[in-house]
Amino acid sequence: MKINQIMYGIERRSPQALKLYLQYYRKFHKFPNFLHPKTFTEKLYCRLIKPLPIFSELADKVRVREYVKSVIGEQYLIPTYGYFEEITEKDVQLLPDSFVLKANHGAGFNMVIKDKSVESIPDIVEQANEWLKIDYSKIYHEKHYQNINRRLIAEKALLKDGHSPADYKIHVFSGHDGEPPYIFIQVMDERTVNIKQSFYLEDWTEAPFRREGSEPITNKELLKRPEKLADLLTIAKKLANPFAYARVDLYLFENTIYFGEMTFSGAAGNLRMEPDYWDEKLGEKFKWPDEVFMPH
Hints:
alpha+beta, five-stranded antiparallel beta sheet, four-stranded antiparallel beta sheet, 10 helices, 11 strands, 30% helix, globular
């Protein structure tokens, strides 16, 4: 029996911290130091083991809207059509012809309805309500998702020529020691079968690293420097400021910036960069111990 199979068997029967310890080994082929974490991925994994309570509030796609409203203003929120503890066919029939339906308690729970008239409403209802049965915290051991009251949210579809706008995932390492924040921007091309992604620094120069195993974007439109780059960065910094590290997802649609979500354990802690030494370099920029720098 291979060592990975043995470790997987142990992992399935172990408490969360040990599961994550073994999972880290299986992902990165080395044992982590969770007592004194140094690398970016070690610190992300420590967040999985002991997340700050506020992560549950801000990872909630419904509750985070109040935080966004208080910090940067309501104008950056995507207009909503309703919230649902459970959705019915009648609820869907009352929604506009095009909309986005998503669950608030994890990643991947979303569907873009471009034209309701050509969709199966019973299928929409069945799929959306199935999301609500899933405890997302158990899928990738992201504990802070466990405390989210599961709901569905219907919101305006940001579509142009049938496509969603560019998604700028802005990673912010806040200084809080007199140093300016360190920022890199992850741009995703989700129109391809295998999602491609490219990385840029704050000045839109190409980052000296990329996600391990990822393919760079070839779509030149997506690689153009955003006209509102300065505004995107200002908004991301304000929202991420209380935290040692946070990822803020923003959309630029018809020259208007919209908030997408906040993430505190991107890729479930497995956001490893290459060259490999960038895992340690980004870890140095991730202030530790993890705490909230909320203004009094």
